[in-house]
Amino acid sequence: MTDERVAGSFRDPAGFVFRRDAALYRQVNPRFAQHYDQLMTSGLYETLTGAGLLVRHEEVDVAPHAGDAHRVLRPEIIDFISYPYEWCPGQLRDAALATLRAQQLAFDHGMSLRDASAFNVQFVAGKPVLIDTLSLEILPQGEPWVAYRQFCQHFLAPLALASSVDVRLLRLLAVHLDGVPLDLAAALLPGRSRMQPGLAVHLHAHARSQRRHADDAGAEEQTKSGAKSGGRFSEQAFRGLIDSLTAAVRKQGWEPGQSAWRDYYAAKESYSDEAMAHKEELVAKFVGELQPRSVWDLGANTGRFSSLAARTAASVVALEMDPSAVEVSWRQAAAGETPTVLPLVMDFANPSPGLGWAHAERQSLSDRGPADVALALALIHHLAIANNVPLADVAAWFATLCQWLVLEWVPKDDPMVRRLLASRHDVFDGYSEQGLEDALADWFEVVRRERVRGSQRTLYLLRRR
Amino acid sequence: MRRLASYFTWLVWLTVCLSLLVLPAANAYIDPGSGSLIFQVVVGAAMALSLGVKVFWRRITGFFSRRSR
How far is B10 from chain A (nearest CA, A)? Predict the structure, then answer.
């Protein structure tokens, strides 16, 4: 029996998540018993899980990982854990609204979220779901929302930055794991953001208040001294706060712009109709034969081949560098057209690293694998030519990600490669089909090799050695 | 001018009093931030009022839209 506490689960004394053999458990510590029991008996658990806002769990009779436990829970397994710095604006916005909706429902049941971390939200079947069952506590009567600062930093600030400044600022969430500091957001936002009441209050004025009280040495003591005199932050004020935050989040829209990748298929520059149809047929055949559970589509664009893979695989992660393409793909998933496809923003020249305490709180991309099958369709030239990664290194990296690989070879005389080479010297002597096969040989065996009809491209089906 | 000054004195006094009455939740394991707690108490009344007006307005528009149907 191997027992291991999950690395990102150490901050909260109320409980933690641990892995035993292949199963995942959540231990509820005795100090949190009253709150957990209230969640289960107040009807809130049924309400939240029924609305798809909270992950389901069952109570199990297994030994705790450490110390005494009030309960041990076995939560439903999430196929792929993603992080806010990998989301498009639509995903962050949906996660924010789900958090606020959960808070509203909790409030109706005399409970409240005691944190509002974006890392507590995951996507299941195209919908945001809160995964930390222990986030819900008995509502501390008359007190302001303890998670207000965190909500503004994790959700409202990055959404406002994406909406009003530049979508690439969502990457700030990888640097600031506890959300974008409000003074930083306020400094980056344009002056006109003060005209939006939601941002004027929850970001700008809030940031000023934080600055003003940053050095309040006795603030904690002062606040405690007022404890015994009953409620001061009224129920109506609490509801007003959540309502106001909801309105502010709803205003932070972002429309995917025209981007090279988003319109890639429509342009038909790289594929004739015949080539595209044959490529789809081959990918569907390869994936269909393998019957994988998990597929990672590397360089997924708007998810055309991800949705093809989703006909067979239960979990498809569509990884793409361009936030516009990811947003388009997310809207399809959220609308229920491709619910098992999870699109995420990922730059393969700099994939998500291990982050946080001891590099382990948030896993790197490869630590979250390997997938049964990876698709690397029309990706190789971006890695080998646009990013100068030697083919041998590309092959070695692919080998860390999957058991099976469907790889599309794009030769030098392909229009897309010619475009990449148009403005630079061709220093890629080894970039050839033979060079690719030599590079792959250490890691994969070639199971199938098919020329895509009507093109110079080749599709490989490769098995990890 | 004197009236304005006394208004500000009153506002500062109110803010200080409210800030003394804020209490972080007993189970809080994250830092709520004293500036964030105090800020909520300061704007809480306005939030409550704004929600009240919103609900009232919805009732009025709801009443007329029902009647016009």
Answer: 18
